[in-house]
Amino acid sequence: MIKHRYLPMTEQDQKEMLDVVGVSSIDELFEDIPEQVRFKGMYDIKPAKSEAALMKELAQLAAKNKDTASYTSFLGAGVYNHYKPVIVDHVISRSEFYTAYTPYQPEISQGELQAIFEFQTMIAELTGMELANSSLYDGGTALAEAGMLAAGHTRRKKIIVSEAVHPEYRDVVKTYADGQSIEVVTAPQKDGVTDYEALQQLMDSDTAAVMVQYPNFFGQIEDIQPIGELAHEHKALFVVSANPLALGILTPPGKLGADICVGDAQPFGIAESFGGPHCGYFAVTKKLMRKVPGRLVGETVDGEGRRGYVLTLQAREQHIRRDKATSNICSNQALLALAASVAMTALGKQGMREMALQNIAKTRYAKEAFEQAGFEVVYQGAHFNEIVVNTKQDVTAMNKALLEKGIIGGFDLARVDERFVNHVLLAVTELRTKEEIDALVAEMGALHA
Amino acid sequence: MHKDNQPLIFELTKEGRVGYNLEALDVPSYDLADLVPATYIREEQAELPEVSELDIMRHYTALSRRNHGVDSGFYPLGSCTMKYNPKINETVARYAGFSHVHPLQDEATVQGAMELLYDLQTSLTEITGMDEVTLQPAAGAHGEWTALMMIRAFHEANGEGHRNKVIVPDTAHGTNPASATVAGFETVTVQSDENGLVDIEDLRKVVGEDTAALMLTNPNTLGLFEENIIEMTELIHSVGGKVYYDGANLNAVMSKARPGDMGFDCVHLNLHKTFTGPHGGGGPGSGPVGVKADLIPFLPKPVLVKQEDGSFHFDYNRPQSIGRVKPYYGNFGINVRAYTYIRTMGPDGLKAVTEYAVLNANYMMRRLEPYFELPFNRHCKHEFVLSGRIQKKLGVRTLDMAKRLLDFGYHPPTTYFPLNVEEALMIEPTETESKETLDAFCDIMIQIAKEAEETPEVVQDAPHTTVVSRLDETRAARTPVLRYQG
Fold first, then answer.
1. CATH of the domain at A301
2. Mind listing the domains of chain B with CATH numbers?
3. Sign of the dihedral through C-alpha A131, A242, A213, A229
4. Interface of B with A in 96-115 (CB under 8 A)
5. pLDDT tens, residue by residue, A384-413
6. Chain B residues within 8 A of A319 when measuring between CB atoms
7. Tell me, what CATH number does A427's domain have?
8. pLDDT of residue A332
9. Helix, strand or coil for residue A198?
10. Residue B3's pLDDT band (cuts 50, 70, 90)
């Protein structure tokens, strides 16, 4: 009989339990599996390893990766290397949080429910929207869910997405839309921002939503207010995908006419983690409250009048509505929403603004440094976190050379659009020092020379 | 546990307090008005908390004490597989080489992460008996939808885009019909027979040339193995449909029966259930999808492949792919944990997991059978369903019994599901619980059954010991308060 630290069954237990069940062996409990489909061998997978040996092996595997803790990273494109208050990991490591399921039993889940209620409040505050849900998988699927909501709400079959929205987000919107036979049309970008005139031409009476990103994929803070007005003139919903950190200093989408504001809370205390898990957020106007996908936590009272929190408005959800649900989602990213809440709390009212200001100042400094070194920074609008630099060389080869200097370079834009050959999308966060930025400019200059 | 309210973090705020620490700005500071057009400069700051680091730690510690997790006590929540969440998983997922890796780094710099993912998808291919696995979907529901989108693309590629019906049993998880709708299908429900299994005759009536797929979990949500599985998969295949395996209940059959061998064409797994995720209070999860060969061309992009030189590569050149289902490559952090678990257990460990999970469930079922109605009296798999009908006649509902369990430090079973059992109590003990824990829980269940007869009000008014008593859910829904109002 196997002995394993996760399996408390002893031989004596087994014997006593089999007696109660009235069978002589465990195998008898599987006799209802038809003979032809019974699996009789052992899985052909690697044998078990002891705790210490496995930790060593996996540490070695992890060490094969170049990580942003030991390298200086200028890579962003939707996932950022930010200050992560140490306290975040201590809070989310409390196993009362991470070993719990969805809070279906509110009397013993008040901690999680209250934490989510606080998260919903912080997101609503930052985005300037009336309410936010408890989170979704990530920013990309949140944007796709916004598209589904808009199509259902307006009973229209076309979504217009700006080309200045993250290309991977656009791809996800497209896949979701395919399932619902919704057409996705791309509004082209011009000078790194949504081409307003081209967008005007695309608008029609079947347009359910117009989607933009703020700041956009190229780091530009584009003039989105007129786009919202245009969407509303055509009775379409205005959907804004926003970096929530930037909202520490930028006018919140709720004040710019957004009907739905989505994004990813990854900048708040969430590790890059090779792309996930991160934390999508989803905020709306009150008018759309009963159409929101995913979990919502609401405040109420118990029999003695004590304040408490419950999952609410569940008539929207799959376990009640089955095929009529507003979405098939039945989880949220609770633990990451908790991480983001702790980071937002640690930053607080002052820190949110200060950190956002540092990001915009350092982005500006980098832009000027590249220009002074003779590089073309191709878009001249207002920037947050990111700039596009014409490197005048193959970006992949350049990044290889930078790696040897301890630098993880930016995103090679030619990967998404061949018009961008030799152009790199560089991300500068508050963690990049002046020396690091100067070193990047110098190395890129030297490589070109 | 004291019953006072824990103030909201916003109520602990004091102007001027901080909980963060940023390096002083080392580049020139700019006037925001010079960088950003006036329309886009925020005028009013977001009302976020202003608290010290100790305030934060005490606040969240207080909240954690008002929350029940697997580490707090037994959690026999049916269909959720609330097993122990190994601590090594948490340590490994936090290695810098896994947690501080950016998804868009050059592939040459992330070969270790890709190797782990590749080995995980290979292991899951073997465990499910499928031909290939994608690790992209973020959770079970996301995996269901991904697989259905692939089925849809498959039929369309074969000129059979008219297949618009997805059949689901009445015992199915609620996500199944919801996912079918999101993938653009109509749902047809097939009834269960008196043994709690899919009624084959009813299934025969609903299949046809418009059948796109049958979605099935096996064992089903009653914890019963669908013995007619071969007949069912053959029936669906004979009319050109695909058969989908909801892997939420895989803990019941590991090393005993593989979905691929049962005739399933695709399967999703919940790595946060069978493979110790953990659940995180409702997420994050991970919902890989396994497919048979004829669905491989439709896998979501990118597909992780091993190249001839032994290196790993994300392949985007997949013209028939359904496209991208998620930015980047799935919930990597959860996949690392699942991989660590599989490597901790090995083949004989996973076999023992299923055997003990099933023995534990059968043991509890037999211990409780004299006190509760057992609608389907046969061996169960990883979970079983009782009915509270006997107690209901005494005026005690299943909801009341669930709330009474809270007084004894237990998370209750899943209640009122599946829908075809009145006053259902769905119990899944998992393999990581000891006989002593199962016995203690059964003793309390028996005590509650006695209370229902002798002192029903004690059960009806439960819970008595929690930080709040039953909450007014009607009020929450009628006048929604979804954020702190100040």
1. 3.40.640.10
2. 9-65 (no CATH), 88-343 (3.40.640.10), 351-460 (3.90.1150.10)
3. positive
4. 96-106, 108-113, 115
5. 999 999 999 999 999 999 999 999 999 999
6. 174-175, 417
7. 3.90.1150.10
8. 86
9. helix
10. low
